[in-house]
Amino acid sequence: MVGGGVWPPLERPQPYSCRLLTSVSSVPTVLHCVPRRSPVPVDRAPQLPALRNIATRLRIESVRATSEAGSGHPTSCCSAAEIMAALFFGQMRFDPGDPDNEENDRFVLSKGHAAPVLYAVWAEAGVIDRGQLSSLRQIDSDLEGHPTPRLPFVDVATGSLGQGICAAVGIALNARRIGSAYRTYALLGDGESAEGSVWEAAHAAARFALDNLCAITDVNALGQSRTTQWGHDMEAYAGRWRAFGWHTLVVDGHDLAALLDALDEAARTRGRPSMILARTLKGKGISFVEGRNGWHGKPLTGDDLDRALGELEGQLGDDTRNPTIPSPPRRAATSTARISLETVQLPEYALGSAVATREAYGAALAALGAADPRVVALDADVKNSTFSQTFEQQHPDRFYQMFIAEQVMVGAALGLASRGAIPFPSTFACFLTRAADFIRMGGIGNVNVKLAGSHAGVSIGEDGPSQMALEDLAMMRAVPGCVVLYPCDGVSAARLVIAAAAHTGMTYMRTSRPKTAVIYTAADQFVIGGSKVLRDSAEDVATVVAVGVTVFEALAAYDELDRSGIHLRVIDAYCVQPIDVDTLVRAGQATGHRLITVEDHGVVGGLGDAVSDAVAAHGISVRRLAVREVPRSGTSAELLDRFGISSRQIVKAVVAQQSEVNVPRGGAAAGHLL
Questions:
Q1: How far is it, in rounded angstroms, from Cα 76 to Cα 281?
Q2: CA atoms 643, 437, 607, 660: torsion sign
Q3: 659 vs 521, 561, 569, 644, 662, CA distance in Å?
Q4: Which of 225, 105, 220, 227 is nearest to 168 (CA)?
Q5: Residue-level pLDDT at 33
Q6: Does the pLDDT value for residue 4 go beyond 90?
Q7: Looking at the DSSP assignment, which residues form a beta bridge with residue 621?
Q8: One domain, residues 385 and 506
Q9: What is the CA radius of gyration of the chain?
Q10: Which of 137, 583, 600, 619 qualifies as a FRET site for 96, CA 20 to 30 Å off?
């Protein structure tokens, strides 16, 4: 439909090649389907009157709640009412009183703007009081405009479209990890099917043969501003999902019997995930809204509200008892013991030996995996560069190759983390920016994921600027609660892997391509929020705060300046966020209220900004050495010097700072922020 109007009445679709299930016995033998839960077909007819009433009440509550809130998406809720009723009250197994039960079936609302219908489901199931629905979108209410894990049955935050299906892949993978029979369901909108991340997830789920995953697409044909890209062309959707290897069914999304049959078939399908394409009408049940463009995100008010509620209430049948939600079996809870260095056999590196931090990361990750079965690793086809292949070699059953698809790699990691795994997704740091929105949403949900980005900065050398992450520290520092770690040698890298795993919440570790000298010993401790003062004396006249590869440039600058009688304090700020404020302030106060930062990163948002934020209130100025223009190919040493972060450039900055200190009164201002 284009330009408004009303869609023709829905009819039960004719069979497609992926066909609508009409009876359980009609499952093709080529699917090798075996019952998962019920060995015989279930007579659903007695449930239908109750499910119809539930669907109608879900519409009523969604319309009422959004109208009271003055905002929301009631028409998007109305199209999904039968889907939600069939799924939660006719198919899923879960204990409404125990959201932490690891055997509960899981649900991800990928079309997060339909949150009110999910909240109405929980009210219907007794999880929340029905009166709470009127608090939708209020400042102190956990019933937010889009779902977040503040609510116990929400595993991941959704609302940024195209992400929920990626998280569902991770949640389904987790069931295999813990040997659980729970199933994972995800509800998508047809509009979000334009997102590339949806098809990354489609590929990954089929490759992993996730037959415990069932996605449903609410094909209501209307987006925010116009008809969706394929409208109600169900074969356009079906052909794509079949091509990606999914068992695909097309149903009338307002026909409860058809939905239940399709869900049953999906549960019996083996060897591949299932997609149920449900043809629906946006605003279903409200005559003057149903199937009409222009109502997206618009609550009903005044006479329209009264008329809509009157129509919906008139659709309620006789009083019925809601179907009993089957509870899953209980199982022993997965261990949540805290990780400590004492339980992990970390690699040992001799002082002065050369090892890349990315290599130490891989070795430590493998050792961590041996100590804790919750640890998993995900890769984007760079395992031999990030050294996550070391983990794969030792723990192949907990290594997930996602190929060059960073969005589903991070999205699946969020899903795994939401169910108790400790995932380490790793790739080149520059390519993690592909998944920036997933990382942002992970921050909203305070997800316990451990990101790792290698090949950071110009120090990677000849590969050139497309491979050089110069924005990643800024991106990660902007995520609420994200810990940002940047080790300089093998010992610190290995120990910070353990610190990241032991921390509850998102972390990001930045590793480097070049081999660097080992400067720490096994006795050195590395904590979140800490730093190391590598050189200091009572005669220090300047402080250089470095991180990663620039620590060695700072140490080389120290040696050169020391020969000239200039004493330099050197700090390794291995934890960029939260940064060690006390150490920085003490150093700044001891060296003329001035600091110099040097980083293999862009000037915006990295170490320099972190240090400036930390010391500004103490009257300490910061001179920032960072990459200030688009770099080019060259050797690592050439690039560090050309772009202003080599030992030679540090020496120049220290000498210039000392010249400024000695400028007579009335000259250039000391402490100028550069």
A1: 9
A2: positive
A3: 37, 14, 18, 19, 5
A4: 105
A5: 30
A6: no
A7: 594
A8: yes
A9: 29
A10: 137
Residue with tokens 């934020």: 613
pLDDT band at 1 (very low <50, low <70, confident <90, very high): very low
Query: Are 494 and 618 within one domain?
Result: no
Q: How far apart are CA 193 and CA 109, in angstroms?
A: 14
541 SS3 class: coil
Same domain, 280 and 349: no
For the chain, helix (H) and strand (E) counts, in that order, are: 22, 19
How many residues make up the chain in this entry? 674
Q: Is 367 helix (H, G, I), strand (E, B) or coil?
A: helix
Q: What are phi and psi of 378, to 5 degrees?
A: -125, 145
Residue 475 has pLDDT above 70, yes or no: yes
DSSP reduced 3-state for 354: strand
Task: Name the domain boundary from 517, 541, 567.
Answer: 517
Number of domains in the chain: 3
How high is the pLDDT of residue 538?
97
Q: Of 326 and 379, which is predicted with more confidence? A: 379
Do 452 and 370 fall into the same domain? yes
Mark whether 552 and 494 lie in a shared domain.
no
| Mean pLDDT across the chain | 92
Structure-token pair, residue 618: 């103490």
In a domain, 411, yes or no: yes
Instruction: List 213's β-bridge partners, or say none.
Output: 184
Q: Report helix angle 256-268 to 81-90, nearest 10.
A: 50
Instruction: Give yes or no for residue 42 having a pLDDT over 80.
Output: no
Phi then psi for 26, rounded to 5 degrees?
Answer: -90, 5
Quote the strand ranges of 133-223, DSSP E.
Answer: 184-189, 213-219
Whole-number Å distance between alpha carbons of 595 and 566: 15
Reported pTM? 0.91
3-state secondary structure of 86: helix
Would residue 462 show up in a list of annotated catalytic residues for this protein? no
Residue 365 lies in a domain: yes
The answer to whether residue 487 sits within a structural domain is: yes
Instruction: Note the pLDDT tens digit of each residue in 593-608.
Output: 999 999 999 999 999 9
Rounded to whole angstroms, the Cα distance separating 125 from 130 reads: 10
What pLDDT, on the 0 to 100 scale, is given for residue 35? 35
pLDDT at 250 over 60: yes
Q: Are 501 and 603 part of one and the same domain?
A: no
**CATH number for the domain harbouring residue 286:** 3.40.50.970
Are 309 and 380 in a shared domain? no
Q: What are the structure tokens assigned to 316, written together?
A: 């309620």
β partners of residue 535: 570
**pLDDT value of residue 300:** 96
Task: Give the end of a domain, one of 492, 517, 542.
Answer: 517
Confirm whether 428 is domain-assigned.
Answer: yes
Looking at residue 346, its pLDDT comes to 94
CB 592, CB 622: distance < 8 Å: no
DSSP sequence for 400-421? EE--S-HHHHHHHHHHHHHTT-
**What are the pLDDT digits (tens) for 181-236?**
999 999 999 999 999 999 999 999 999 999 999 999 999 999 999 999 999 999 99
CATH number, domain of 597, equals: 3.40.50.920
- Percent of the chain with pLDDT strictly greater than 90: 87
In this structure, the answer to whether residues 353 and 447 fall within a common structural domain is yes
The whole-angstrom separation of Cα 166 and Cα 573 is 34
Task: Report pLDDT digits (tens) over 543-586.
Answer: 999 999 999 999 999 999 999 999 999 999 999 999 999 999 99
In whole angstroms, give the CA distance from residue 364 to residue 390. 9
Residue numbers of the domain that contains 467: 341-517
Instruction: Identify the active-site residue in 103, 406, 471, 599.
Output: 406
